[in-house]
Amino acid sequence: MSGAVLHPGQVAVVTGGAAGIGFALAAAFLGRGLRVVLADRDTGTLDAAAARLAAAGHSVRTVPTDVSRPEDMRRLRETVLATEGRVDILVNNAGIYPGMQPVWTIDRDSWRALYDVNYWGVVHGIQEFVPQFIAQGSGTVVTTASMSGLSTVPGSADYSSAKHAVVALTETLRADLDLAGHGGIGVTLLCPSVVLTDMGRRALGVFEAEGNADERSRIGSGPDLSAVLTPEALAEAALAGIEAGDLYVLPTPRSRDRFLGRIRPILAAFAAAPITHGALEPGAAGAMSDPADEE
C-alpha cells in the first residue's frame, strides 16, 4: 500500500505516550505539525510529559487511559473525536516489562497482567479505532512490538510470547484490511531491539558488566548491545515507515542475525522433512467434495 502523508492538523493518539518510545513518537509528530493526544494510565507522568512538551513550545491533550480496559479505550476514542474532531493515527505503544526468569517460575497473575497491557491493549486499540478509520476511509495503526516478537531471548517467555502475538495480530490486521478492500488504511509494526528508555535499561540491567554475573550466565547471551537505539532514532524510523507505507519497521539491522538464528532451524526442518504419504498433489484440493454435498 502507499504510505500516509503526514501533515499539520492531523491528530495522532499515542498510548503509553508519557515516557520512552511513546513520548519520543509524540515529540516527532509534534515536530511535523500534527496534533497529539497522549494516553497513559499514570496521571502524574502524563502531566509531567505535557509540561516537558509545553516547555518546548508544544501543546498536547492528555487522557488518562488504562489500555487493558476496553471501556477506557472506548472513552479515549470518544474523547479524541469530541475534542479534536478527527483522528488520523493510532499508536498502540503502551507496554510493560517484567524482568527475566525461567518460564516455569513466572507467576500467573503477573503473566496475565502483562498480557492485559502488551497484547489486549493492542486488541482494544484496534477494535475501537479501526472501525473509525474504515468509516472515514483513512487512518494509520502503528503498533510497537519488538525484536522479541520475531525471535526469543531466554528468560522472557511472557514478554516475548506477547510480542509474538502482537506481530501476528498486526500482520493479520493488514491482511484483513486488504481482503475487505480497505488497503488505504496504513498498518505499521515497530520491531526494535533494546531502546534506551527506562524499560529498555531495565532489560539491559542483567547484561551490564556490573550486573549479577550468575543471573547473566543463567539467562544467556541476551540482546545485541550493538543494536541499542535512542527513542528519538526509533521515532524518526517510525515516521519514515509510516510515510513509506511499510508494514515492518526494523530499525536495528544488526538484529538480522538474531532473526535468522530463529528461522534457520525451521527452514532446515522443512528441507529435511520427508514427503508425507497421502499429501494432496498441487491442484487436488479443488477436487475435494463439500461435506454439505454428502448429506
UniProtKB/TrEMBL annotation:
Keyword field: Membrane, Oxidoreductase, Plasmid, Transmembrane, Transmembrane helix
Pfam family membership, one: adh_short
SUPFAM superfamilies on file: NAD(P)-binding Rossmann-fold domains
Family annotation (InterPro entries): NAD(P)-bd_dom_sf (IPR036291), Sc_DH/Rdtase_CS (IPR020904), SDR_fam (IPR002347)
Top-level taxon: Bacteria
The keyword ATP-binding appears for this protein: no
Identification of the protein by name: Short chain dehydrogenase
TM annotation in the entry: 12-31
Organism field: Celeribacter indicus
Any one GO molecular-function label of the UniProt entry: oxidoreductase activity
PROSITE patterns documented for this protein: ADH_SHORT
Stored Gene3D superfamilies: NAD(P)-binding Rossmann-like Domain
Family assignment from sequence similarity: Belongs to the short-chain dehydrogenases/reductases (SDR) family.
Keyword Oxidoreductase listed: yes
